[in-house]
Amino acid sequence: MKRITLLLLAVAGSLVYEPLNGCGPGFMSEDYRFWLLQPELAESRSLHSFYFTTDHIYETDDQELLEIGYQLNIAEWKVVVGNKVPEEAISTILYGTTPSDFWLNEQELFASNAFLKRLTELKGGWPEFIRYAKTCEQLANQGDPWGFAEHDSVGIRRAWTDGTALLKRATDPVLKARVAYQLVRIAHYGGLPLQDAEQVFDAHLAPLRGKTWLEPSAAFYLASMQPNPARDLAYADLLDRALDKRSRMVNLFVSGEVETYLSMATSDKQRASLVVMRDLQHPGRALEDLERIANWDPTNPHLPLLLSREVNKLEDWLLTPDLTDMGAAIRQWSDGEDGVSASDIRKADLDYLHQVKRFISRVTVHAAPKDQALMLLLNGHMSFICGDLDEARTLLGQVQRSANSSATVRAQARMDLILCGVMDSKQLTDATRNDVLALVELVNTAPELQRRRSVILDQLHLYLGKKLIERGELAEGAFLLARSERLYGTIMGWWGTNARIVVFEKATPTDYDRMIALLDKPDKSPFERYLTATDDRPADWESTEQVFKQTEFSREKLLDYKATWYLREDSLEAAATVFRQIPDSFWQEHPYAMFAEDDPFVVNIEDPHNYNNEDSVRYTKRTIVERMIALKREAERNPKKRALNHYLLGNAAYSMSWHGKYWIMSRIGWSMWEMSDWRDREVSGPGDADYFGCQRAQRYYELALEEAKDPILKAMACRMAWECQKNWWSFAGEGGMDEAENPFVRSLDDAKSRESYAAIEDCSGYAAFVARFR
């Protein structure tokens, strides 16, 4: 049953074996990419889908984009109807009532809705306009699933005629502008002549430039009716004016044609906007373009966002590979490509970071006062990333003291300053422990961090956890890491790694002792209570202790892993000593209960995972080690038992390998894919030669083969030594297995052992031989 369960997990997990990147599987890259510089610092809501490197990397909130236009529209409607009409009444009709519902309930709505009642009072064509706007809404938003294009075009032409008539009757310039907007929109969606739309726009909307959002929004529709390059050149002129269409223009913009467009541009401002739109799409280095933008338009309002993106990319390139098992979300190079090494890539990225820092220092003086604080923050943040903590403190301190710093920018500077303090010491001190607690409190309590505090805490716990582990403070680092829900690693066959897996792979007995001591300590300090999730969390803080508890850092689990470490090192006595500290009831829990019916001292190559449930003797991890110790001792004092005992020890070692039924003696997870061609054999961990290559098992089988007198025992040891040899070749990636013959057959120097081996090979006697050693 354990194989079936884990097989299903393995099949699912294999989908994410390869490190995710910007072109990878269906995980949003935001789920795993690392960042400390929070988004939204540049305060550019209309371009929020480009805060990170691309729309693919940072998921678009379409509703937020729509609300930009909603708010502009409602604000202007309030000027028409007056402040006595509630905003909710306006919004209900404009955005909360579909055209079909409007017409179905028209009489009731005009009698009850304050907005419609006020339009009725105003007369002069306002009630008729709302009816007309709902008609246009249906025509513009409704598709044509049946393909009746002629029917749609008739409706659009009729709407154009009706709108033109309404426009002629209107006397209020504001009403005329709204009717004209609907006409331009209908012309765009219906494919009507551009010239007709332009005439309406020029007469009723162009004169209102700078006075209403309708004018630049309608200009977007006119631009979109033109072929390129005229369309994209017009988008560049509208980028700073059509706020409700800005994100859409960047999405539609053909960035590959920018150099051609630049030769047609009529002003430096337009040139700068063309490059801005390209860079908002561009996932790679953009400093050369930023230099051009700054030269053409020194006060360009988008430079702060573009520079934030550039810092974001550098974080990804420099920190994501170090803190996670993933590559950067957007890679400039791949390791080994054209002879480029990981160290080469890192050096190039650090050089680029310093180039960006120098650029920021140069352009900060031209930025608006509110943006100068952000520029200082970006510069200081990069100083922190590259390890220049003194410069980081200087710059971040200026941000803290600046009257122009927004609350969010100031909070980011505070976070970075605290991190500088923690990372400036080679090991935790009382001061840096307090800094960590202060950081947690800041993120949980600062109103300006409320929206993203969960992800910020995840990133901070990941960063601090990995950095502490890296500098040797594994216990503290692992406990902090256990509070992070970020996807920072994958292991074959599983969705993702967690802090417990990191500990299993990296910890030594001393580390386990430290972690257990922290869990058991009765009089914990505030920092130790936070580490072990025994602190009292204020009710409105993020519940990261629940994430910690899901990691299952229990005393028994850590003792099991410590004993397994000794077992991996072949220190059976030390392993047994630790296993004896674990209550027997622990082995009845998941996942250990899955192995309750398996006998590791019996190996059947035809059923190595005991699918047929033929084993009869029951063991736990403790009793297995105790029997192994007993078999070794008996072999030392009784020569007659050496061959059999070494064979049984070989069976136990084989069962503890990836190939065997009791792999949980060596690992905490298993996947069918781990021995496939996907595994990078150049990256092997401690014990892999025994776990995948069966080296320890093979040594026992060879001893049994040398000492055996019983022909069946000798033949079985010969067969298993050969099985281990083939597993080693598979693990090492060596070829020739198909052509090779069993070299251990040479040790079968008598007729009966050769006869027994032949019975194993032709399967006539193998089942009986396995049963003989149960």
Uncertain spans: 1-27, 145-151
How many beta-strand segments? 0
Task: Report the end-to-end length measured between terminal Cα atoms.
Answer: 21 Å
Proportion in β-strands: under 5%
Largest sheet: none
Shape, per Cα inertia axes: elongated
Radius of gyration: 35 Å
Instruction: Write down the overall mean pLDDT.
Output: 90
Computed structural class? mainly alpha
Helix content: 55-70%
The tally of helices reads: 37
Description:
- With 774 residues, the chain is mostly helical.
- Helices cover 60% and strands 0% of the residues.
- The protein has helices at 2-13, 62-81, 87-95, 99-104, 106-112, 114-122, 126-141, 149-169, 173-190, 194-204, 214-224, 230-238, 246-252, 258-264, 268-281, 287-296, 303-323, 342-363, 369-385, 389-401, 407-423, 430-445, 453-470, 474-481, 499-506, 509-520, 526-531, 544-550, 555-568, 572-579, 621-637, 642-655, 688-691, 695-707, 711-732, 751-761, 766-772.
- Helix 9 packs parallel to helix 11, helix 26 packs antiparallel against helix 29 and helix 31 runs antiparallel to helix 32.
- The chain is elongated.
- 43% of the residues are buried.
